[in-house]
């Protein structure tokens, strides 16, 4: 079994990834500053820290066989709150670490690096990032690959992760499910936009296997490509009495693309298996039982939370 440092291991992806690693017998240390959490109670080693503290990371990294780097400011809106801080967190901190450590890391990027393009895009397709989030992730990929690392470009996530970390309610499947519960109606703007989607649990499945794979590659991760309106109809299959309202877009939604994931299907044993309907039912139970006290709390929405933290004078926000 291996020793694994999960940088950003208290987050949405990190929480379930940490659980899977522990279940398989790996020794896990989570390095995080609890941006979205007030506590960390898991039965594994924990280091409270900021990823900009390069000296500290360099001092501890030698203890670990593998490093999974998940920490970032995530999402177009969240990154736009402070471009300078986003660049420091998403690019410069990783760049400094890799230049000085020469370590191989397993890194999560985003399929939004492809921008708006027609056809089904593979890892060799041109990249056309349309947001600071996508452009910083694309820049960070280069340093990872230069140090023999592995890059996963993720489709839009959905579903519930582990039992400790907060759920994100600003992702398309999750927010449509919440609105179906609260208002018995979901509104779809446009609706013909394509998205590659994948459950957070499936991403963790790939990350678990990745520590056994020496690949120095980029891989697209998706469960399926779906049209937004079709997603709404599938959520209606779980909530038959809801109304779907389709309205015209007041702007051109440039997030419209499909990706090919045949490369990862060829090279990895793990196959994504968590469906939209399965996770919608899990979230339905979560909301029905009022296990989230306030679903409107900023903590569940990346843009609102980052905006609030910055307005309150905090810039040590990601670890």
Mind sketching the topology for me?
Blueprint: E1 3-7, H1 12-23, E2 27-32, E3 45-48, H2 54-60, E4 66-69, H3 76-80, H4 83-101, E5 106-110, E6 120-121, H5 132-146, E7 150-154, E8 156-158, H6 172-183, E9 185-189, E10 194-199, H7 200-210, E11 218-221, E12 224-227, H8 228-238, E13 243-247, E14 258-259, H9 262-267, H10 276-288, H11 302-311
Parallel strand pairs: 1-2, 1-4, 2-3, 4-5, 5-7, 6-14, 7-11, 8-10, 9-13
Antiparallel strand pairs: 10-12
Helix pairs in contact: 1-7, 2-4, 4-5, 6-8, 6-10, 8-10
Characteristics of this structure?
alpha/beta; Rossmann fold; seven-stranded parallel beta sheet; three-stranded mixed beta sheet; 14 strands; 38% helix; 19% strand
Please give a structural write-up:
By secondary structure, this protein is of the alpha/beta class. It has a single domain (3-311), classed as Rossmann fold, CATH 3.40.50.720. The protein contains eleven helices and 14 strands. It has helices at residues 12-23, 54-60, 76-80, 83-101, 132-146, 172-183, 200-210, 228-238, 262-267, 276-288, 302-311, and strands spanning 3-7, 27-32, 45-48, 66-69, 106-110, 120-121, 150-154, 156-158, 185-189, 194-199, 218-221, 224-227, 243-247, 258-259. The chain has a seven-stranded parallel sheet, sandwiched between helices. Strands 8-10-12 form a three-stranded mixed sheet. It has a two-stranded parallel sheet with strand order 6-14. Strand 1, helix 1 and strand 2 (27-32) form a beta-alpha-beta unit.
């Amino acid at each position: 079994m291996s020793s694994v440092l999960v940088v950003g291991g208290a987050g949405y992806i990190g929480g379930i990834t940490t659980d899977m690693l522990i279940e398989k017998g790996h020794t896990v240390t989570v390095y995080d500053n609890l941006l979205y959490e007030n506590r960390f109670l898991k039965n594994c080693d924990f280091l409270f820290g900021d990823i900009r503290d390069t000296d500290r990371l360099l001092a501890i990294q030698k203890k670990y066989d593998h490093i999974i780097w998940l920490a970032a400011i995530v999402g177009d809106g969240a990154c736009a709150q402070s471009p300078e801080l986003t660049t420091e967190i998403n690019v410069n901190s990783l760049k400094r670490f890799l230049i000085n450590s020469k370590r191989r890391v397993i890194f999560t990027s985003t399929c939004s690096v492809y921008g708006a393009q027609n056809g089904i895009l593979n890892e060799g397709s041109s990249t056309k990032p349309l947001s600071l989030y996508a452009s910083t992730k694309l820049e960070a990929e280069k340093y990872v690959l230069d140090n023999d690392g592995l890059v996963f470009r993720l489709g839009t996530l959905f579903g519930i992760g582990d039992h400790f970390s907060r759920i994100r309610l600003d992702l398309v499947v999750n927010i449509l499910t919440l609105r179906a519960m609260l208002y018995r109606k979901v509104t779809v703007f446009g609706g013909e936009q394509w998205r590659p989607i994948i459950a957070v649990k499936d991403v963790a499945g790939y990350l678990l296997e990745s520590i056994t794979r020496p690949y120095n590659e980029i891989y697209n991760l998706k469960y399926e490509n779906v049209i937004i309106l079709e997603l709404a109809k599938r959520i209606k299959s779980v909530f038959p009495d809801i109304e779907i309202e389709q309205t015209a877009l007041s702007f051109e939604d440039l997030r419209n693309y499909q990706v090919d994931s045949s490369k990862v299907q060829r090279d990895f044993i793990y196959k994504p298996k968590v469906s939209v309907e399965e996770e919608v039912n899990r979230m339905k139970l979560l909301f029905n039982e009022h296990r989230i006290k306030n679903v409107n709390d900023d903590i569940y929405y990346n843009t609102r939370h980052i905006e609030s933290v910055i307005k309150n004078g905090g810039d040590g926000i990601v670890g």
